[in-house]
Amino acid sequence: MLFHVRMDVHIPLDMPSEKANKIKAVEKAYSQELQRLGKWRHIWRITGQYSNISIFDVENNEELHNILQGLPLYPYMNIEIMALNRHPSSVRENDS
Fold it and tell me: What b/e readout covers 9-22, taking b as 16+ CB neighbours within 10 angstroms?
């Protein structure tokens, strides 16, 4: 199943920078491993915001839920999710 996920990050301003940097480093490693596994298919930064738009390719809602809750920055995120389905007018047969 494909999901469009928008993640807006709101790290508390009073969080020590060393702690924030450690969380970000662990987050980067986690997200890159999910990308290598094909679960996190695409990630794009939203210009001028501490936000991203990502496409996940997972088995079901529960797998996505578990992946997102595993993000070290999860406690500091607002997340919007949209399930995606292949459009019948798409010329790409293999992108489902």
Answer: bebeeeeeeeeeee
* Alpha carbons 80 and 75: distance in angstroms, whole number: 14
Neighbours of 5 (CB within 10 A): 19
pLDDT digit string, tens, across residues 11-38: 999 999 999 999 999 999 999 999 999 9
Tokens at 12, concatenated: 């508390």
pTM of the model: 0.91
What is the residue-wise DSSP string for 12-77? -TTS-HHHHHHHHHHHHHHHHHHHHTTSEEEEEEPTTSSEEEEEEE-SSHHHHHHHHHT-TTGGGE
- Each residue of 60-95: pLDDT tens digit? 999 999 999 999 999 999 999 999 988 888 888 776
